[in-house]
Amino acid sequence: MAVKKRRSKWSEAFRQRIVAEAEASDEPMSEVAKRHGLNPKLLYSWRQKLLKDQKATTTGKEVCLLPVEVKTAPGETLVQANDSILSSLEIDLPCGSKLRCGSNINPALLSQALSALKPHRPDTSL
């Protein structure tokens, strides 16, 4: 006997919108669920599924390495990596922007910011 697959009452777009609303809200997820007439357990399961799907799509991402050139600013000298007197770091990004960090930046925060950068892909539709 074949098992019939039950059709969902809510569209994927609706689920994503409600989960995004719950994530952005300061109120508990259960309150967001109740406001939309949903069982809180259902909203939690939608959230878990979306997080799982997002993780699955991000793990297959292509790695793009960017060229790096180390330069000294006028009047400054290059210091060794193990030297703690480095006062700042400046990164020229391919898009023309600059990322400047002071010596007191949290390394985990810098790592997170750099990992969030997207490689520049020229528009080939022209």
Could you characterize what this model shows?
This protein is mainly alpha-helical and 126 residues long. It is built from four helices and two strands. The chain is elongated, with a radius of gyration of 23 Å. The model has no long low-confidence stretch (mean pLDDT 75).
Notable traits:
126 residues; mainly alpha; two-stranded antiparallel sheet; 4 helices; elongated
Q: In brief, what are we looking at here?
A:
The chain is mainly alpha-helical and 126 residues long. Helices cover 40% and strands 8% of the residues.
* Strands ordered across the widest β-sheet: 1-2
Radius of gyration: 23 Å
Strands, count? 2
Order of helices and strands: HHHEEH
The CA-CA distance between the termini, in Å, is 54 Å
Flag low-confidence runs. none
Biggest pleated sheet? 2 strands, antiparallel
> Which word captures the global form?
elongated
Q: Give the % helix.
A: 25-40%
Chain-wise SSE layout:
Blueprint: H1 12-24, H2 29-35, H3 40-59, E1 88-92, E2 98-102, H4 107-116
Antiparallel strand pairs: 1-2
Helix pairs in contact: 1-3, 2-3
